[in-house]
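_Per-residue structure_
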Amino acid sequence: MDLSPHAIAEVRITLDSFFEAYGRGDLDEVMSYFLEDQRIIGLGTGADERNLGWEEFRAQVERDLLQSSSRQVTIDWFKGAGQGDVAWAVTEGPASAVTDAGEFTATLRMSFVLLRTGDGWKIVLSHGSVPLAGQEAGQSFPGE
């Protein structure tokens, strides 16, 4: 059975809350939105940001937080769906961080798979990407 509009709204609230915790730099709260399981998967935009399992993913989030003095992600666009106790969602919006190298800003696109548990929706897969510079609208590859 497809997820109800109420369940999709719960997923949206979960993701908004996750990004708020990330912005505050609260590692434990950020990780509370993920299923504590060795099967979770995370992919980021960095060449080495491929994380399998709870410990690897937690280390990645901790690295993000340690390498930035502030960070913010806002959801401007959200789409969600699902079936039974599984939901999938995509988000897009502005992201910024202040690092030793300066300020970083970009449009961040993320996709998620979440599992409904007794403790609410938990993320089991996340993937972040930033659109390629030099790839114009209507083009499938940069530089065309």
Summary: The chain has one domain: 5-129. The two ends are 43 Å apart (CA to CA). Helices lie at 5-24, 27-31, 54-66. The first strand starts at residue 41 and ends at 43.
